[in-house]
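Project outcomes to date are best conveyed with an example. Our students and postdoctoral researchers have been running inverse folding experiments weekly, and each run begins with a structure described purely in tokens. The record below, which covers 103 residues, was selected by the lab manager from last quarter's runs and is presented without edits.
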């Protein structure tokens, strides 16, 4: 399953009300580390299909969501379980580190 484009319109339904964990990638098109992370996030979305939902929030398009979750630096990955952010990592990281976050 491909990543889901998250917006203020679908965030509650896709993330907060999800019955499986959701990994949210806060990113922007001008962010070099975000672009390096993008193929890794896509791999995670495919590898964890059905176990973890993966969504992306473009902070330039969704400034309200970025502010709501206190995003100061990107890329920021947040893992949501049961409607709450339970883990947060900032900056580029290898796939193995993201998998540890999901464990």
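After processing, the design step wrote out the following sequence:
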């Amino acid at each position: 399953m491909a990543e889901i484009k998250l917006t203020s319109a679908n965030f509650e339904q896709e993330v907060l009300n999800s019955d499986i964990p959701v990994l949210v990638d806060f990113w922007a098109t001008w962010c070099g580390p975000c672009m390096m992370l993008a193929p890794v996030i896509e791999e995670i979305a495919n590898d964890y299909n059905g176990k973890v939902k993966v969504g992306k929030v473009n902070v330039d398009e969704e400034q309200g969501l970025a502010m709501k979750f206190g995003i100061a630096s990107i890329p920021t990955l947040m893992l949501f379980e049961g409607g709450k952010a339970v883990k947060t990592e900032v900056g580029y990281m290898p796939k193995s580190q993201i998998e540890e976050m999901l464990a």
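The mean pLDDT is 96. Helices lie at 11-16, 32-47, 63-68, 95-102. The training component of this project remains on track.
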